[in-house]
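Human: We require from you a standard protein entry with sequence in single-letter code and fold as tokens, and nothing else.

Assistant:
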Amino acid sequence: MRRLLLGALALVFLTGAAPAKDTGVLRATLPNGLRVVIVRNTLAPVVSTAVNYLVGGDETPKGFPGTAHAQEHMMFRGSPGLTADQLANIGSVMGGNFNANTRESVTQYLFTVPSEDLDIALHIEAIRMQDSLDTKEDWDKERGAIEQEVAQDLPTRPICCSRSCAKSSFPARPTSTWRWARGRASMRRPRTRSSASTTAGTRPTTRSW
């Protein structure tokens, strides 16, 4: 998990916090290796954070092509010191919006809240960086949601087009179609060994990353 922390890139868009003449981009590296980019925009009094873990579908264990996407979902199911209900309630009280996505080489977590609540958003992300609960009970609930998401993505024209382009551009790349098959092997019912990757697979993978 420490490699995830050290490899993360945090983007913070601060708005309403400085005069227009002071807008610009600030880059810094924290003592723990975390790279931070701050972009100021005074259009509205909100702040958006984007925490990018520099691992994704390309780093999933061999034979388990849905692990990165699965772990993205499980990060919303709670961490030590922050339950899933607490995460949802805090976001609701702040009037915030949060989401995430998984790509070939990055997993991204997004938060948008009023600018005065930036410290809360960053504290939540700091907790989630340390660990996720990854319980079997939560996985059993979340797996259905992931299956539905994948089923909705697969037949769409943009996805089919992107999949064809990826195959043509990277014919030798074994993960070139991971994004559209990301849920198939890992989410399949207990007919395959990948069903055993519920908590036993995602947790060691998270820690090794």
Summary: Strands lie at 9-14, 25-29, 35-40, 46-53, 78-79, 82-83, 97-102, 107-114.
